[in-house]
Automatic annotation (TrEMBL):
<feature type="domain" description="Amidohydrolase-related">
    <location>
        <begin position="21"/>
        <end position="292"/>
    </location>
</feature>
<protein>
    <submittedName>
        <fullName>Amidohydrolase</fullName>
    </submittedName>
</protein>
<dbReference type="InterPro" id="IPR032466">
    <property type="entry name" value="Metal_Hydrolase"/>
</dbReference>
<keyword id="KW-0456">Lyase</keyword>
<dbReference type="InterPro" id="IPR032465">
    <property type="entry name" value="ACMSD"/>
</dbReference>
<dbReference type="InterPro" id="IPR006680">
    <property type="entry name" value="Amidohydro-rel"/>
</dbReference>
<dbReference type="Pfam" id="PF04909">
    <property type="entry name" value="Amidohydro_2"/>
</dbReference>
């Protein structure tokens, strides 16, 4: 066991947890992941500073790394940036979930003809969580081509990790307003707003606290890398604590410019946060949302 793995395991063990549920990890076809890594390798001129990939290794090693950390469940967040891509990604994800029992079977979609049909197929194949990336996909979540998709996901209660905040760069359709409009039409949607909605933290906390089923994930929040550019407002920490059961742990593994341990210590070091809140965020809240065994076993 590596030193980092031992340190990560010590964090959740001290809380009396059986491990971690990480709702924001990326596994995807190699050709797609290579392009994602190329984007981050070029991120200096794009976001104003270098963005090194900490866990740049082959797929089997990345899975083993998460297991070594004691991550009991994780996701294969896939997302298209153009039409005629989502269905193919979903087919890849079926096989990955089949051979990786601790991965929550993940699927995705794009506003295009046929989206309702392939989302229906993905649900039938066992998809338990979806990914929507408003910034990369450059689409309005209220596009009429997605009406059937959102209705189906709301009815089934299937969670959707959605990157809709304006960090690290704003897009044409990022920000809280499109999500408010979406929830007015589909109030039961189990959205998981990625990165706590950074940098619009306060607005997405409003949405979470006012909603029926919206969650927030902690991906990259409070780490030194993020705080240097998009700090979380300390005045909103009490509301984050109040959101308790709606906060889920996410890391963005492997595409993070820091260590996995840092994602955890960024949370454990927050002022005014107690161990029970941490137990919920690191394991219990996601275990409830996905109906997982309380001992973390498969």
């Amino acid at each position: 066991m590596s030193d980092e793995a031992a340190e990560v395991r010590a964090i959740w063990s001290a809380l009396g947890l059986p491990g971690i549920v990480d709702v924001h990890t990326h596994f995807m076809p190699k050709s797609v992941l290579d392009k994602v890594w190329h984007y981050f390798d070029s991120a200096g001129p794009l976001v104003g500073r270098p963005w090194p990939i900490t866990y740049r290794s082959d797929e089997a090693e990345r899975v083993a790394t998460l297991r070594g950390f004691g991550v009991r469940r994780f996701t294969s967040l896939i997302y298209p940036h153009k039409p005629d891509m989502a269905a193919w990604l979903n087919q890849w994800a079926v096989e990955f979930a089949r051979t990786t029992a601790d991965c929550l079977h993940t699927a995705t979609f794009y506003p295009e003809p046929g989206a309702t049909e392939y989302v229906t197929e993905a649900l039938g194949a066992g998809a338990r969580i979806f990914k929507a990336h408003i910034q990369v996909g450059d689409y309005d979540p209220n596009d009429p081509l997605l009406d059937g998709v959102w209705a189906m996901l709301a009815e089934s209660g299937t969670p959707v990790v959605i990157h809709c905040g304006s960090g690290p760069q704003p897009g044409r359709f990022t920000g809280p307003d499109p999500i408010r409009a979406l929830l007015r039409r589909h109030p039961r949607l189990a959205l998981i707003v990625a990165h706590l909605g950074m940098p619009e933290y306060a607005e997405f906390l409003d949405i979470c606290l006012d909603s029926i089923a919206v969650h927030l994930d902690t991906t990259m929040a409070f780490t030194g890398f993020t705080e240097a550019a998009m700090p979380f407002p300390l005045t909103d920490l009490p509301r984050l604590r109040d959101a308790g059961e709606r906060i889920l742990f996410g890391s963005d593994f492997p595409n993070i410019p820091h260590g996995y341990r840092d994602a955890l210590t960024a949370l454990t070091g927050l002022p005014g946060i107690d161990d029970d809140w941490l137990r919920g965020v690191l394991f219990r809240n996601a275990a409830t949302l996905f109906d997982l065994p309380s001992d973390g076993e498969l």
